[in-house]
Amino acid sequence: MASALTHAFAAVALAKTLSNQKRDWRFWTLAVASSILPDADIVGFAFGIEYGDLLGHRGLSHSLLFAALWSLLVVSCEYRRLIKFSRHWWSLVSQFFLVTVSHGLLDAMTNGGLGVAFFSPFDTARYFFPWRPISVSPVGVGRFFSGQGAAIMASEIEYVWLPLATLWAAVAVLRRYFARKAGAETDSH
Prior knowledge:
Blueprint: H1 4-18, H2 25-36, H3 64-78, H4 87-107, H5 141-144, H6 147-188
């Protein structure tokens, strides 16, 4: 798996890239939590659930179905005042879906584990992407803060943080450019 820090960074970068709307602390807390939530499946190890099982690590909780159901649940529960199925409601559902599914996408780019069950429970096969440059992060905090952890963070910075930060910055620059251009056109009329 990629580290929790990288999943959280991906959530923030993706949400900032997808929308320039001001968000409150609740949105950011839910977005970061949604990006990390799929790894809650590691508690299954304590109950004898095997890695490759349906409820095992990188199983159902890393699937597209889980991300869809989770995003619907979050928006339905936390944004009750929004008109259901409105454009803004669907926008939030889409954003929470993307930050949740980003977890599995990043895990499928790692060089370890059994792959990700994207289509679970309908297809329990595990998948990796052909390009897997991210060093797999160990389960457990203690092993992460070591020499191995530093190498893992270096690969995550190179292959996740820098590309997402570049995308985020490029979108911000384009937004400013088009806002200025629209402002200039309005002023000339």
